[in-house]
Write a structure and sequence with these properties.
By secondary structure, the chain is an alpha/beta fold. The protein is 48% helix and 15% strand. The chain folds into two domains: 188 residues, 3-Deoxy-D-manno-octulosonic-acid transferase, N-terminal domain (Rossmann fold, 3-Layer(aba) Sandwich), CATH 3.40.50.11720; 181 residues, 3-Layer(aba) Sandwich (Rossmann fold). The strands form two sheets. Strands 3-2-1-4-5-6-7 form a seven-stranded parallel beta sheet, with helices on both faces. A seven-stranded parallel beta sheet has the order 10-11-9-8-12-13-14.
Length: 425
């Protein structure tokens, strides 16, 4: 059966994927950039590896994009401090690749080539890894099968598997049984994920629940963020700050009317709005929505601040630090495709609210269950909840404590993962 899957995958699915990739590049800028960047993938990799001390062990981490790479960073940083090793990181997405070129804990950064058998053989011949770690998902069959042939240990780290995963559908489940059985270790973020992986007939010795490195990463970043100073001391003295983080237009359509009503009824509140994509068009749309209803100023003009009620953030990379100033936060994406990272505000011990599209986030679901976070469904909901948080100090502190404790209680996955990696280096 295994040979049949290899034949089917290479004859049918690889050509379909290559065609999809090519057609997608005609309409999608991200795919187009990824294709262009891959043109000299192997030539660049040969040059990058040429001067490397190959007497050191080689660890290869693969992340689909930037989000998965963030989860890898606590592991990478500990490994580099603890061991004299080489580390290669590959990406599928150009956003991950391009945003990581200056990250100091890596020796080589590359794209992952298209998953043909020849490409898998070629990259393994060049890299010669001692251990390969796939972050969360984005594992490719030909590469996995070639790793199996060469007896190269390979892990999935921060692994998740939904009970409703399409991988469990008839036929697909047999294909994934074949894929997963070759892994040396599958380290899941929860016991439920472990249970769901075991349904693929994987040996119990392979699968362990060790937690999620996102908790470690958010905690590390929060400590660093507290040392950053974005505003003059006392600028918001006696004020309560509400941060709207990573917002899309669909979030703002619900949250902005509630904010405007809150500002009318509570003069102590200041709002930071942090668009997920701070394009000129998006910023101007926000300013138009606030016109004649609330005073606003862009973050880049803050030297001219005159007690405006809304500060629109037109810079990137400062959201986590902004959360450190907040008394409560709304996390965006939850009225669009799926919520962004709820741990980033939670680590500061503040109440968190968000829309109803939270199925992609176990952390959001858990915080709701613990009563540290609230789900909003419409503008009326939004106003009622944020009004209650800002008018009830006891409620605000209780929710915030729940959020912070949830993060602190789940720190430690990195050490457990390092302990498993240690057996192979």
């Amino acid at each position: 059966m295994s040979k049949i899957w290899i034949i089917v995958y290479n004859i049918f699915f690889v050509p379909i994927f290559k065609l999809f990739f090519w057609i997608g590049s005609l309409f999608n800028q991200k795919i187009k950039i990824g294709l262009a960047d891959r043109k000299k993938l192997f030539e660049n990799l040969i040059l990058d590896l040429a001067g490397m001390d190959r007497t050191k062990k080689m660890l290869w981490f693969h992340s689909s994009s930037m989000g998965e790479f963030e989860q890898a960073k606590p592991i990478l940083e500990q490994l580099k401090k603890k061991y004299n090793i080489n580390i290669l990181v590959t990406f599928f997405s150009p956003s991950g690749y391009r945003n990581s070129l200056k990250y100091p804990y890596l020796d080589v950064i590359s794209y992952l080539p298209i998953d043909t058998k020849a490409n898998a053989q070629r990259i393994l011949n060049l890299v010669r890894p001692n251990l390969v770690i796939f972050m969360r998902y984005d594992f490719w069959p030909n590469l996995l099968w070639e790793l199996d042939k060469r007896d190269v240990p390979h892990f999935i780290v921060d692994a998740t598997m939904k009970e409703s995963s399409k991988r469990k559908l008839p036929v697909l489940i047999n294909f994934h049984k074949f894929l997963f059985r070759g892994f040396t270790k599958i380290l899941t973020v929860s016991e439920l994920d472990k249970k769901n992986f075991l349904e693929f007939g994987i040996s119990k010795e392979i699968v362990d629940s060790v937690g999620d490195t996102r908790f470690d990463r958010v905690y590390q970043k929060s400590l660093a963020a507290k040392n950053k100073k974005l505003f003059k001391d006392g600028l918001f003295a006696d004020k309560q700050i509400f941060v709207v983080g990573s917002s899309w237009e669909s979030d703002e359509d619900v949250v902005l009317p509630a904010i405007l009503k809150l500002l009318q009824n509570d003069p102590s509140v200041i709002v930071f709005i942090v668009p997920h994509e701070p394009t000129i068009m998006h910023l101007e749309r926000l300013e138009h929505s606030l016109m004649n209803k609330a005073t606003s100023i862009r973050f880049s003009f803050l030297n001219n601040y005159q007690n405006e009620k809304v500060i629109i953030i037109d810079s990137i990379g400062i959201l986590l630090t902004l959360y450190s100033y907040a008394d409560a936060a709304y996390v965006g994406g939850s009225f669009k495709q799926g919520i962004h990272n709820v741990l980033e505000p939670a680590v500061y011990g503040i109440p968190v609210i968000f829309g109803s599209k939270i199925e992609n986030s176990q952390e959001a679901l858990k915080l709701v269950d613990l009563n540290g976070a609230k789900v909003i469904y419409n503008r009326r909901d939004c106003y009622r909840i944020i009004r209650s948080i800002f008018s009830d100090t006891e409620l605000k502190e209780r929710m915030g404590t729940i959020c912070k404790n949830y993060v602190l209680e789940n720190i430690g996955a990195t050490d457990k993962i390092i302990s498993e990696i240690n057996k192979y280096i």
